[in-house]
Hints:
- This protein is of the alpha/beta class.
- The protein contains 10 helices and 7 strands.
- It has helices spanning about 5-15, 20-30, 50-55, 70-80, 95-100, 120-130, 150-155, 160-170, 185-195, 210-230, and strands at about 40-45, 60-65, 90, 105-110, 130-140, 175-180, 240-245.
- Helix 4 links the parallel strand 2 (about 60-65) and strand 3.
- Helix 1 runs parallel beside helix 4 (about 70-80) and helix 5 (about 95-100) runs parallel beside helix 6 (about 120-130).
- The longest helix has 18 residues, at about 210-230.
- The protein is globular and about 50 Å long.
Amino acid sequence: MDQNGLYNHWQRISAAQEHDFRVSALNKLIIQILDKDDTVLDVGCGACGLTLFLLRNGFRVISIDTSDEMLRLGRTMLSKYKLSSDSVYKASISDFSAQNQNSFRQIVCLDVIEHIEDDASALSELIDMLKAGGRLILTIPAMPSLYGPKDIEVGHYRRYDKKMIQRLFSSSSCRIQSIRYWNFIGVPVTWFYLNILERQVNESLRRENKGFAQRTISFLLRFWFSVFENRFRPPLGLTLLVVAEKEF
Length: 248
């Protein structure tokens, strides 16, 4: 699948990560789940947004991605903050898993498996890298009914619902500890753009804070995500957050 759309998407985001309310809120939610005493494997690290956040908060992180372009963005971002990229590697899930069986107590894989045609095999390889009792944290795009042009542009094979995820894990050695929707506020916006305007959602607010109106809306969205989305479990959302523990 062509990854140019995905690269362009993350190039825009990485250039203004400090202003991106979605990235900021999701990183803060993820960090609450992790244990600082154990190394984090960031699978599909992309432009190293989560890696950067974890390193700046005192975590030990190993990061992998398959894209030279994305890794270049990530290493540039880490260098900007005077952080080492020595633990950022080019590797596929399959190759890294083959060399690191039962090696990690915590693996984070944000918005990755929807880009992989055989998501079941990718999930199995992620689980193979976990030690018994280790945890896998996934985020994936939710609500198949909202699959649209943006998904196609960034290389999504699918969006998920809870039943699809439960089926993926059903024959694995991992037990789902929690599964929740996130980004409720994005659902009506995305539905309106897809069904009424018949075009992609305008995401410029995630990257720009040029005027008073944009700064105000960005501030309100940052407040919404940090206070409501991260503290309560909405009935629907554009993202599913899954936490699973390996039993054996």
